Amino acid sequence: MNNKQAKDGALIHVVTPFILLFICVGVLIAAMIKPADKLKVYLNIAFMDNLKNTPESAGSGLVIRDNDIIDGYSGETFEEGEFIRPKFGEMYAVLTTSAFDISIPVYWGSSSELYERGACQSSSSAIIGDKGNSVISAHQDTYFADLNKLKKDDTIALKTNYGEFEYKVTDIIIFNKKENKYVSPSETSKLTLYTCKKDVLGNSDERLGVICEPTVKKFYKKAEESKK
């Protein structure tokens, strides 16, 4: 009897450290899940997968072009005019708003590298000033951190090297990342801005944003001038 108790006691002493180690490892893994998920959001997946127009593997070869956008243009302008279509990875606009003091560079296309530099416009959406839905997104913890402060009738301005365009906020939107109705092509001319809805626990499936209608178009050149 004493021998059996001694063996059981020895077994407990041997097994206990392994049990404690297993518990500690389990707790550590559980504690790392949410921070890792949060980091994933920051790096890349804050926005709809179907709006990423290049694979992440292409990021290493991405050519990023930072342009100086015309500011303070004083020449003649036209309501209809010539567009300058940007290349993927090119900064082609600057976004400002009447709601708060901020100036955000807008890049054509979407990738994790571009999201680190500014807002990104889906290259499947309409170029700024053209007919259709121009869809622009940015990280909620950086360039679109104050997007939730926008209200109806606030003004959004976008300056490009081919013209200046103003929009008025008409709708505040909240939608799931699987919904495409707000970011799909449209026959109606509009501007859609959106970002992730903040979630302290990690990646959120909810998006928030605004829909804006065009109010002012000022092209620097008439469309026919490019054909001369």
Your description of this structure?
This protein is α+β, with helices and mostly antiparallel strands. The protein has a single domain (46-227), classed as Sortase (Sortase, Chain: A), CATH 2.40.260.10. Helices cover 22% and strands 26% of the residues. It is built from two helices and eight strands, in the order H-E-E-H-E-E-E-E-E-E. It has helices spanning 2-45, 112-117, and strands at 91-97, 104-108, 119-121, 133-137, 155-159, 163-176, 190-196, 206-219. The chain has an eight-stranded mixed beta barrel. A hairpin with a 6-residue loop joins strand 1 and strand 2. The longest helix has 44 residues, at 2-45. The termini are far apart. The relative contact order is 0.17.
What is the approximate shape?
Answer: elongated
Average pLDDT for all residues: 81
How helix-rich are the residues, as a percent range?
Answer: 10-25%
CATH superfamily: Sortase
CA(first)-CA(last) distance: 107 Å
* Unreliably modeled segments: 30-59
Radius of gyration: 25 Å
Key traits:
single chain; 228 residues; alpha+beta; Sortase, Chain: A; eight-stranded mixed β-barrel; 2 helices; 22% helix
In short:
This protein has helices at 2-45, 112-117, and strands at residues 91-97, 104-108, 119-121, 133-137, 155-159, 163-176, 190-196, 206-219. With 228 residues, it is an alpha+beta fold.
Blueprint of the fold:
Layout: H1 2-45, E1 91-97, E2 104-108, H2 112-117, E3 119-121, E4 133-137, E5 155-159, E6 163-176, E7 190-196, E8 206-219
